[in-house]
């Protein structure tokens, strides 16, 4: 397979996957609200999604490292998620929706770190720029969020589960075209992760990324609801979500140069500092010009954080441990940490509204301290374990 073909296939996969993400993150809270869930209950559903990663990501990472196959497992996960999402229109009430959310998120959330692991293998084999492949996902997110924001001005939010299912089945089709890179199958137990998990540098990395993810919980769960309450239209809200991702796309387009120039740890520091500023702005005003300015910092809070995390794992961890390490990262930093704080974020939003972003700014400041320590001590930028 040529590098051009590999890049096209990766881009197609990310484009399909992020149609689903562009539906789920900005607008799924509106579907939950339409089912009569309160802000606290929406926060609990969001927390359940995060916490599901604690089990899903390590289990799926173990299956990938043990079996050696990535692509086949990704196809099965995307198909399962697409079918399960068709059950949401049948659900009513908080508890049934909560239970089905856990079941649906399990394959969906496990697909993301596994796809990133395969993508980094393809990038390494063919000498590609990860960011340029990943930006097609960001462009797809922009298109989905913008078009859906416009569509929901005339369509009911009850269409969202059907759209999610269609996007996930499209993702399954895109997975068939991915390069089928395998790692050696472990007939016995795969190599132990213990040296990685106990390494102080990896723990610093986990702390940095976990705090950054925790700082996004008010934004992901309540930004659409907050902006709608402030008088912004669905179309404007869709554009605001898209604007943040446009900034992210610009970063991804030059990611090789950025990572080569600054390194993963410095990018994690940039993410934390950007978050401190972004959440301070959103916590003090809903004025559209300032919100537009804050959304540009998504390039830092998400883009730099994502690139920093992906490249840290690729550089610091041996390939035979990569899927499980990516799974542990997803479980702890993207699952457990924000999952524990999201119910608190829901209660905080009920009490303070937009002022709840100020607590998120504090979390970003703590993330910056840990990122600075990681940058100081991971000076070689090489493997943290054999």
UniProtKB/TrEMBL annotation:
A single MF term (Gene Ontology): lactose:proton symporter activity
A GO cellular component annotation in the UniProt record: plasma membrane
PANTHER family: 3-PHENYLPROPIONIC ACID TRANSPORTER-RELATED, BLL5896 PROTEIN
Entry keyword Transmembrane: yes
Pfam families: MFS_1_like
NCBIfam families the record matches: mfs
Entry's transmembrane regions: 12-30, 42-61, 73-91, 97-123, 135-152, 158-176, 196-215, 235-255, 262-281, 287-314, 326-345, 357-375
InterPro entries: HcaT-like, MFS_assoc_dom, MFS_trans_sf
Membrane topology: Multi-pass membrane protein
Keyword annotations: Cell inner membrane, Cell membrane, Membrane, Transmembrane, Transmembrane helix, Transport
Keyword Lipoprotein annotated: no
Subcellular location: Cell inner membrane
Protein name per Swiss-Prot or TrEMBL: Putative 3-phenylpropionic acid transporter
Provenance organism: Paramagnetospirillum magnetotacticum MS-1
Annotated ranges, domain Major facilitator superfamily associated: 9-351
